[in-house]
Design goal:
The chain is an alpha/beta fold and 198 residues long. It has one domain: P-loop containing nucleotide triphosphate hydrolases (Rossmann fold, 3-Layer(aba) Sandwich), CATH 3.40.50.300. It contains 8 helices and 5 strands; from the N terminus they run E-H-E-H-H-E-H-H-E-H-H-E-H. Helix 1 packs across helix 8, helix 2 packs antiparallel against helix 3 and helix 4 crosses helix 7. It is globular and about 50 Å long. Bound molecules: thymidine-5'-phosphate. Thymidine-5'-phosphate binds next to helix 4.
Length: 198
């Protein structure tokens, strides 16, 4: 087993493949001998479960969403991610702060990037953020379960995509387009991670 803690986040618009690629990346890194902890947001704690329910409810104020996502993250980081990093795991999180910055600020004009950063300021920063990019038209067409959650709307997701790309450029995040076949996309992600691991 290789002990080499690194906090990796895969983020991106709905349907970009963060969940599929997080799983594939975990398998790949384990095959290389690394200890890997895979997690996701909304997390598995009680706030995360409540948030999953709220994803079906359009009447929840965006500010409530933002505060709950921040609380979920705080608990997730301090109760899980931090401990795993200290134990020498590579932690892969399927979504993290960037999801709040993008989705909640697109949800409401009242919500600024600075405010989201403030309410998330007590959690650790990832060492590596990779943004998976997809045309929302393709993403929505790919959906097998046709019951749409509140953010799965073409106009909303176009704004989400635009903001991810703008923020990625600003913050120096890697962007991987996921239009290609899964194996090729995953290989690009693996190359970025292996370069980071040296
Ligand atoms: P997913 O399980 O398909 O990734 O769905 C989670 C949804 O929650 C997705 O539409 C993005 C949204 N979300 C936010 O709006 N803010 C957040 O902070 C997080 C983590 C997710």
């Amino acid at each position: 087993m290789k002990y080499n803690s690194l906090f990796i986040v895969l983020d991106g618009g709905d349907g970009a493949g963060t969940t599929t690629h997080s799983h594939l990346l975990k398998g790949f890194l384990e095959s290389k001998g690394f200890k890997v902890h895979l997690t996701q947001e909304p997390s598995g704690n009680k706030i995360g479960i409540l948030l999953r329910e709220y994803l079906k409810n359009k009447d929840i104020p965006a500010t409530t969403d933002a505060l709950l996502f921040a609380a979920d993250r705080d608990l997730h980081y301090h109760g899980e991610i931090k401990n795993k990093l200290e134990e020498g795991y590579i932690v892969i999180s399927d979504r993290y702060i960037e999801s709040s910055i993008i989705y909640q600020s697109v949800q409401s004009e009242k919500i600024t990037v600075d405010w989201i950063k403030k309410i998330n300021k007590f959690v650790g920063k990832p060492n590596l953020t990779i943004i998976l990019d997809i045309d929302p038209k393709i993403a929505l067409a790919r959906k097998s379960d046709k019951t749409l959650e509140k953010f799965e709307d073409l106009e909303f997701l176009n704004k989400v995509r635009h903001l991810y790309l703008t923020r990625a450029e600003l913050e120096g995040y890697y962007i991987v387009n996921t239009d290609d076949i899964i194996e090729l996309v995953q290989e690009k992600i693996q190359n970025i991670v292996m370069a980071k691991l040296g």
